[in-house]
Specification:
The complex is a heterodimer of chains A (583) and B (241). Chain A contains 26 helices and 14 strands. In chain A, strand 3 and strand 4 form a beta hairpin. By secondary structure, chain A is of the alpha+beta class. Chain B is mostly helical and 241 residues long. Chain B contains nine helices and one strand. The chains are: A alpha+beta (583), B mainly alpha (241). Chains A and B meet through helix 3, strand 8, helix 15 and helix 24 of A and helix 2, helix 5 and strand 1 of B. Strand 8 (203-206) of chain A pairs parallel with strand 1 (222-223) of chain B, so a sheet runs across the interface. Chain A: Keywords: 4Fe-4S, Electron transport, Iron, Iron-sulfur, Metal-binding, Oxidoreductase, Repeat, Transport. Chain A: This is Nitrate reductase subunit beta. Chain A: It is found in: Cell envelope.
Chain lengths: 583, 241
């Protein structure tokens, strides 16, 4: 037994209202720059729906993940090592930008600059790739809230499969449709096929916490990881020519903070914590013959953090005591293994994904309520779960490789909790038979209710920090993405001799240091001549426009009373409009 | 043997090697982040799927051909019983076909680069310069192959270019042999040297990191945050009992 720690996440889909706050904050934090305009490390899909990129779940087309070959061994679906090297000059199954969507902005200038005329000026969409006008035809959320579902819904690969298997159709007419939201980030798999696909060895799984990252200095842009990932959560930055992916917000997690998507989640549906798992058994678990056994095999990998044998083995591997303590309090372990209400997304891809989902009971409850039944009575709910085949089958295709058994069990547990807690809340007589029907007792159900419904911040996020002894190094390692065009592109690093994005990244700590020094030593708000100056609004009394509040205008033509006195050549990026420009 | 000959065939090759080696080391140290294929497959893959393998595989064969033609002395192939005519036939076939594939491949790629909007926008001045030199090297090289097939003593590069090339490695450049070679060969050699000189400063560097190691490494790569083995010093506080 070789114990390793893995940072994991659970999402409670019943609570997702599809507000996309996670996506937006993630984008602002990580992919708000050119080259990755089309990239959403976190996206929220409406299911049934095609997802993002379009139909990514159809591995017959995209060849992601692993398959079990005839000898019972795992093999990359897109082909082995030699095949990969032979197709390296043109990856045969790389998604095109249009499979994601062509990113665009609007020509807002036209609204103010258009000549007088009879018609109102409009802001035309302009492609962020080519700069030309384009007809917007698709995006990451084109079929949000089942928009256009009669047309787009039947192309959902899961809808197609259900139809092929059971002759039954998923209905998209308003009265009979069901839907739920599926937020997705990188799964930080135990058996990551993207890592296995990377010819350069630039992708790796962090030994300490299992976060899967791309070494930006080592990536050579061979693009095999994009194909390898069955969730299509590795993206190609078309400007830097490097792969980028969800980082599990490692700079935050290392200091004990939850990821940005979790922190900002309005529905508080995300849980972060540690799993302990046996790394020696991962390959065997991912190679079980029957796809329907993969969920159980994945559960078996997770080790009980309270088991003295596990603790001893973990100590032997050098896992710190506070990490073990955090593992014992891990909400994700409780949800996935103790209560067994969280399921992995598409276990049949055989990557052992570590972002788990509690399937939504809401389609069942909605149907009961719509038809005039009591949506909180246990017998009604149990009956409906058994009767409503389509939502359950759909969920099973997502979470258990098509086996409705585990999904039904989870839904029954959620139904039991719902019914039981109503009795508690309303002060009715408690019916012990309801928890018993799902193999739990009253105490367990109450605990689960506390975790799922009350969801206190420090119970949702149980994140150990990287230790103090290492803290100074963490800063120096810096963020390797922190170059011009990288996520840390706040720096005015400029361009190296080989075009944008060349040259050496400035470590985060150096940048912070400079910013701090400027703030503490400068007289005014900021020195406009210093490229890396930060504006310190704390030094501003709110009166007038002190020098440095705005960057100098593009052409050094000082007006009377303007902010620039010297008229020195402004050092800032072209194209960044300022208030001065707009006047 | 004029001063020019000495400069071109006795000095320039070493300058080229120095620029290539030092430039590559410098680039690797200074610009690891910029060291990439800068693939544009995301924007367009239909033409790329034809042009890119045609060009790259053609080029690989061309490189093998250069190694055979320049490294293996004529006396060896003679000893092996391969006549001059037979050698030329196989060189023309192998070299001609590979060179033609390379040329067609790069032709498709440049056409694609020019006509596909997003790909053209991602093309830098550096790229354009590199394309000019690269295409020139291929075109002149292909011409020399055809000339060599035409026969004639001055077109037999194995008696002129190859001895000079080998002599460079023992640091006694055989300037006389090279200055006796035909002008097409001399031009090709010059363009080749230019190509190697600009190599480290263009996107061509990706060739130096061809991922051969992929064949031999384990599938899943684990890396510790510290770079070394995953050692976790215990935190201060109560010792575990």
């Amino acid at each position: 037994m070789r114990v390793m720690a893995q940072m994991g996440m659970v999402m409670n889909l019943d609570k997702c209202i599809g507000c996309h706050t996670c996506s937006v904050t993630c984008k602002q934090a990580w992919t708000n720059r050119s080259g990755v305009e089309y990239v959403w490390f976190n996206n929220v899909e409406t299911r049934p729906g095609q997802g993002y990129p379009r139909r990514y779940q159809d591995q017959e087309t995209w060849k992601g993940g692993w398959v079990r070959n005839r000898r019972g061994r795992l093999q990359l679906k897109a082909g082995g090592r030699l095949h990969k090297l032979l197709t390296i000059f043109a990856n045969p199954v790389l998604p095109n930008i249009r499979d994601y969507y062509e990113p665009w902005t609007y020509d807002y200038e036209n609204l103010t600059d258009a000549p007088l005329g009879d018609d109102f000026p409009v802001a035309q969409p302009k492609s962020l790739i080519s700069g030309k006008s384009l007809a917007v035809e698709w995006s990451a959320n084109w079929d949000d809230d089942l928009g256009g579902a009669p047309e787009h819904g039947p192309h959902d690969p899961i809808v197609e499969r259900i139809r092929a298997e059971s002759e039954e159709k998923v209905k998209f007419d308003y009265e009979r449709a069901f839907m739920f939201y599926l937020p997705r980030i990188c799964e930080h798999c135990l058996n990551p096929s993207c890592v296995a696909s990377c010819p350069s060895g630039a992708m790796y799984k962090r030994a300490e916490d299992g976060i899967v990252l791309v070494d930006q200095d080592q990536c050579r842009g061979w693009r095999m990881c994009v194909t390898g990932c069955p969730y299509k959560k590795v993206y190609f930055n078309h400007r830097t020519g490097k792969a980028e992916k969800c980082t599990f917000c490692y700079p935050r997690v290392e200091v004990g903070l939850p990821t940005v998507c979790s922190e900002t989640c309005v529905g508080r549906l995300r849980y972060i914590g540690l799993f302990l798992y046996d790394v020696d058994k991962v390959t065997a678990a991912a190679s079980v013959a029957d796809e329907c056994d993969l969920y159980a095999a994945q559960l078996d990998l997770l080790l009980d953090p309270n088991d003295p044998k596990v603790i001893a083995a973990a100590r032997q591997e050098g896992i710190a005591e506070d990490w073990l303590e955090h593992a014992r309090r891990s909400p994700v372990y409780r949800l996935a293994k103790t209560y067994r209400v969280a399921l992995p997304l598409h276990p049949e891809f055989r990557t052992m994904p570590m972002v788990w989902y509690i399937p939504p009971l809401s389609p069942v409850v909605d149907r009961l309520v719509e038809t005039g039944h009591d949506g909180e009575s246990a017998p009604n709910l149990f009956g409906a779960i058994d009767a409503l085949r389509i939502p359950v089958e759909y969920l099973a295709e997502l979470f258990t490789a098509g086996d409705p058994g585990p999904v039904t069990e989870v839904l029954r547990k959620l139904a039991a909790m719902r019914s039981f807690m109503r009795d508690v809340t309303l002060g009715r007589e408690i019916d012990e038979s309801v928890p018993a029907a799902v193999g739990m007792d009253a105490e367990q159900i109450t605990e689960m209710y506390r975790l799922l419904a009350l969801a206190k911040y420090d119970e949702r996020y149980v994140i150990p920090t990287a230790y103090e002894g290492e803290a100074h190094q963490l800063e120096e390692i810096g963020c390797s993405l922190d170059v011009d065009g990288g996520p840390g592109m706040g720096l005015e690093t400029g361009s190296g001799p080989f075009g944008e994005a060349s040259g050496r990244p400035v470590p985060v700590s150096v940048e912070t240091f400079h910013a701090l020094r400027v703030r503490q030593t400068s007289e005014g708000i900021a020195d406009p001549q210093t490229p890396r100056a930060r504006i310190n609004l704390l030094n501003w009394d709110g009166k007038g426009r002190p020098p440095g509040l705005f960057p100098p205008p593009r052409e050094a033509s000082p007006e009377p009373g303007d902010i620039t006195e010297g008229g020195a050549e402004p050092d800032r990026r072209a194209g960044a409009p300022t208030l001065e420009d707009r006047r | 043997m004029s001063t020019w000959d000495v400069l071109l065939w006795g000095v320039l090759p070493y300058v080229t090697v120095a620029v290539l080696v030092l430039g590559t080391v410098w680039r690797y140290r200074y610009d690891k982040f910029g060291w990439t294929t800068r693939s544009s497959e995301l924007h367009e893959s239909r033409l790329l799927r034809i042009g890119s393998p045609l060009f790259h595989f053609g080029l690989l064969v061309v490189i093998i051909g250069h190694v055979i033609g320049l490294i293996i002395p004529k006396s060896w192939t003679d000893a092996a019983g391969l006549s001059q005519e037979a050698y030329h036939v196989q060189a023309l076939l192998l070299g001609g076909i590979a060179g033609f594939c390379t040329l067609v491949g790069i032709g498709i790629l440049i056409w694609r680069r020019r006509t596909t909007g997003p790909v053209f926008m991602a093309t830098t001045r550096n790229d354009k310069l590199m394309y000019v030199v690269l295409v020139a090297a291929i075109v002149v090289g292909l011409a020399t192959t055809l000339l060599g097939a035409a026969g004639g003593e001055e077109h037999n590069y194995r008696l002129s270019v190859a001895p000079w090339f080998r002599s460079l490695f023992v640091l006694q450049p055989d300037v006389a042999s090279m200055s006796a070679a035909g002008p097409a060969f001399q031009l090709h050699a010059l363009i080749g040297m230019l190509l190697f000189a600009i190599w480290p400063f263009t996107r061509l560097v990706h060739a130096f990191t061809a991922p051969v190691g992929y064949l031999f490494r384990p599938y899943i790569v684990y890396r510790s945050r510290q770079g070394g083995p995953a050692v976790r010093p215990a935190r201060r506080g109560w010792e575990p009992i």
